[in-house]
């Protein structure tokens, strides 16, 4: 299974000034597998220990955090001789022992010659009182569910992957229908590695019942996490987390997808749910897209803290939360228009995030014009419109191009690529093309 994060991990391994690394993310996104694969392919040996329900490690980290002592204990627990530069040290499920996170500071200061990766829940790593997070002493990467290109690779469609990676718009037009069929499968399965693996192993007789059970189990696991750290949170916090999380499908099903506190609970206000929303973001299971007051560079300077959209991290999980059957998505093109385009926007949002963008959106003062997303590279802002159907009327996008003088504009839809004046039309499966072309500072 190919994960694009591996490139970053290899670059980290080869960096002469590397720090201990925290690889975090939501549960079941493949963190443990990825670091084991790094150890297997890039190091001579690997000292792996899981800290979950590990009394020996709990005792080890309750004492002195000096690296020489910890290395000796990890070597004994993993039955591995640890050699600087040759051995990858992996502390899996690091959130289970908060002092293990604190210990990374001492590795950075006193034992930087050792390659150490700690993996764990995004939420669990940051919520423990009484422990010190090693600010400035660690690198931190976040692993999201598999994006569409990773999905294509996992199911063996390497040639199709290359077409998108190479931004070959002509070949996309030739194989458009085939790519759209695979995109529908991705909308059902999503990017959680276990669900993808089941699909790849059982296709063409895909076992959607098993896949949906995996997705249900993941969602139940999230609910378990809502109460897992309740002692460190205000009273009733777990309930507010669940209320916000459960409201996301209906929030996205509205024409105006701006998050409404009153849609979570009648009479709800920001102060009731702000902390819960932040925890969902910290846990990596939700994605926030802030409104900007002006779609100008740099976008962060124009953030409107009172207006935002909230998405899940995975379209397959959103489908399960919505109760949409696989058949309803695979038959025809209704999926892209269902729930007022919620699935199409969800797809584009999570793809943008997977390629390192921090998307925003914009509306004018009276909300008569809207840009669904805004992406930014190191020079300019790119307005993005998402169309769930084949009607590509783009009044807001064209008005924004004229008003703000955008150099480039992109419209994603179920149709093949084409040029429409100043707008580059791209298929919904081709968000990777935007990442590729903006890195090259070109769109056509």
Automatic annotation (TrEMBL):
Pfam families given in the database record: AAA_14, DUF4143
Residue ranges constituting the DUF4143 domain according to the UniProt record: 238-389
Domain AAA: 18-152
InterPro entries reported in the protein's UniProt record: AAA_14, DUF4143, P-loop_NTPase, Restrct_endonuc-II-like
Protein name per UniProt: AAA family ATPase
Species whose genome carries this gene: Bifidobacterium hominis
């Amino acid at each position: 299974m190919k994960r694009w994060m591996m490139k970053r991990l290899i670059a980290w391994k080869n960096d002469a000034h590397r720090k201990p690394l925290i690889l975090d993310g939501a549960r079941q996104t493949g963190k443990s597998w990825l670091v084991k694969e790094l150890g297997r392919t890039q190091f001579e040996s690997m000292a792996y220990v899981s800290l979950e329900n590990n009394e020996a490690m709990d005792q080890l980290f309750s004492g002195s955090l000096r690296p020489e002592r910890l290395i000796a204990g990890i070597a004994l627990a993993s039955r591995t001789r640890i050699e600087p530069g040759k051995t990858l040290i992996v502390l899996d499920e690091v959130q289970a022992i908060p002092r293990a996170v604190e210990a990374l500071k001492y590795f950075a200061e006193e034992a930087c010659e050792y390659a150490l990766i700690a993996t764990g829940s995004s939420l669990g790593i940051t919520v423990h009182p009484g422990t010190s997070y090693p600010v400035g002493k660690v690198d931190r990467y976040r692993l999201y569910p598999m994006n569409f290109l990773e999905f294509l690779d996992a199911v063996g469609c390497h040639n199709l992957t290359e077409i998108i990676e190479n931004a070959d718009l002509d070949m996309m037009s030739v194989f458009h229908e085939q790519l759209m069929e695979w995109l529908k499968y991705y909308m059902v399965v999503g990017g959680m590695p276990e669900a993808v693996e089941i699909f790849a192993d059982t296709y063409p007789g895909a076992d959607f019942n098993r896949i949906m059970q995996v997705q249900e189990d993941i969602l139940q696991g999230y609910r378990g996490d809502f109460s897992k750290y309740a002692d460190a949170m205000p009273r009733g916090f777990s309930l507010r987390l669940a209320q916000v999380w459960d409201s996301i499908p209906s929030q996205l099903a509205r024409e105006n997808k701006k998050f409404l506190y009153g849609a979570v609970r009648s009479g709800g206000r920001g102060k009731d749910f702000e902390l819960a929303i932040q925890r969902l973001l910290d846990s990596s299971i939700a994605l926030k897209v802030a409104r900007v007051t002006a779609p100008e560079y740099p976008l962060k300077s124009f953030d409107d803290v009172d207006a935002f959209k909230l998405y899940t991290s995975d379209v397959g999980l959103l489908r399960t939360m919505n109760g949409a059957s696989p058949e309803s998505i695979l038959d025809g093109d209704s999926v892209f228009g269902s729930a007022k385009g919620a699935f199409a926007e969800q797809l584009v949002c999570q793809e943008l995030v997977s390629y390192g963008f921090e998307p925003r959106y914009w509306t004018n003062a009276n909300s008569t014009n809207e840009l669904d997303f805004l992406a930014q590279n190191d020079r300019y802002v790119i307005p993005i419109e998402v169309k769930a159907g084949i009607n590509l009327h783009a009044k807001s996008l064209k008005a924004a191009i004229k008003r703000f003088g955008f150099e480039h504009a992109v419209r994603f839809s179920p149709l093949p690529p084409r040029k429409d004046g100043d707008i580059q039309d791209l298929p919904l499966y081709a968000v990777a093309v935007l990442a590729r072309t903006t890195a090259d500072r070109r769109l056509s």
